[in-house]
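// run 5 | inverse folding | seed 20
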């Protein structure tokens, strides 16, 4: 079932070959194909403090019958925190995990900070028919206050807060220029339920327009 291991010959293929069809993978070693369901991946992103974790539970309740909602920080442990290559190990592990989960027939909604340049260049990107990105945003002053109010164990000092504000500013500036672009949802004054409803609409509208497997 591993997406990079051929079920026929057992060889490892670092770069999934999807040229044989939408829902099959082609082994470059034995040249046989195997079924592999490729669905869209929906990334609910944004800087820390914009509300991703707050709405994740609401998304789970509203989407659980059609999608699998996962929290990205679940795997932010041990060696997966290696910063090399824009946290490549962490990113590729999540793509492989989501690709296996979607074999159940339900697309994955991944809640956690990620932008297209961190997923799109990876070989595992080919395991999905599309990846869609939405980023929650927030006014800088409100975002800084939210981060300062976090428990001490989360270690949000002023230097880290400044870095997050810079990242948030970058997202606001570059959202439309990224490939694919980011859809932005402002959470400054919105209640969590309203934000979750907007995100659900975004997911459901995109999925309704996506071609079947």
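// decoded
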């Amino acid at each position: 079932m591993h997406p990079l291991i051929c079920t026929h010959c057992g060889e490892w293929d670092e770069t999934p070959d999807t040229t044989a069809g939408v829902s099959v993978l082609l082994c470059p070693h034995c040249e046989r194909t195997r079924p592999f369901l490729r669905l869209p991946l929906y990334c609910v992103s944004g800087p820390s403090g914009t509300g991703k974790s707050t709405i994740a539970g609401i998304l789970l309740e509203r989407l659980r019958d059609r999608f699998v909602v996962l929290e990205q920080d679940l795997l932010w442990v041990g060696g997966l925190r290696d910063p090399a290559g824009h946290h490549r190990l962490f990113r590729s592990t999540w793509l492989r995990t989501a690709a296996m989960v979607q074999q159940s027939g339900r697309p994955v909604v991944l809640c956690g900070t990620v932008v297209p340049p961190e997923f799109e260049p990876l070989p595992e990107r080919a395991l999905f028919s599309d990846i869609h990105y939405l980023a929650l945003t927030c006014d800088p002053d409100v975002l800084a206050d939210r981060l300062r109010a976090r428990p001490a164990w989360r270690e949000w000092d002023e230097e880290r807060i400044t870095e997050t504000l810079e990242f948030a500013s970058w997202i606001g500036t570059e959202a439309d220029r990224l490939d694919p672009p980011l859809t932005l949802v402002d959470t400054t004054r919105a209640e969590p339920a309203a934000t979750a409803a907007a995100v659900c609409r975004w997911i459901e509208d995109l999925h309704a327009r996506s071609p079947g497997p």
